[in-house]
Amino acid sequence: MAYNFKEKEEVELFIKNLGIEYRFGCFSEKKTEVCHLLGDYEESINSNYKKAFAIYKNNCDNYNHAQSCYKAGGYYMQGKAMEKIDDFKAIDYLEKGCKLGFARACYRGASLITNSPNKVRDYTQGLEMYDKACNSEIADGCFALNTFYLFGSEEHNVTKDLPKAAKYAERGCDLDHLACCTNISHMYMRGDGVEKNETLAKKFMQKAKDIERQESTTIEFELGLR
């Protein structure tokens, strides 16, 4: 059936039929990807967060759907559709999503471990999850590790390690992370953790400027300034 999306009634019919299709695919055909889409549908279209959470949680618990584990963990982390935040349950779901290969769950779980006032896991596990996120092309994971090893943390028993800091900064820069490019440029310029190399320092600084210019242009377009 073809829909005319310029007509309000047809848009509403399309959305209604989409929900029917997702429910059938999830509950009758037991398709985990469709169940996750149904959770997204309940969350974004119906704003039924309790139902969305129940779908994500079930899809994670019973069918090991990595992205649903990530979403369920996020609900616990925010206290959404429930009485209170539960960092301990949040990390259980984020850790599971990470182990199942969803990189954003690794990053979010690491952020929870390293920032929560509750000791939900050993701090070193947070660093390991950041590493997994970084190696899965989540640039913010690389930047987090660059920062940790650049300064160290006596409180959390993280030793300052400039070669490691440089490694993660360069990896993050490869993934177009502005701060990582700036940091690795300065490190090459000073010889911090790497052999001093002004050519590489200039190369990475130029990339930082290119990224900054691109991000600025994107923001201007989004704001309608051009």
TrEMBL record:
Signal peptide: none annotated. Keywords: Repeat. InterPro entries: HcpB-like (IPR040239), Sel1-like (IPR006597), TPR-like_helical_dom_sf (IPR011990). Gene3D superfamilies: Tetratricopeptide repeat domain. The keyword Kinase does not apply. GO terms for cellular component: mitochondrial intermembrane space. SUPFAM superfamilies: HCP-like (SSF81901). Pfam families: Sel1 (PF08238). Belongs to the hcp beta-lactamase family. This is Cytochrome c oxidase assembly factor 7.
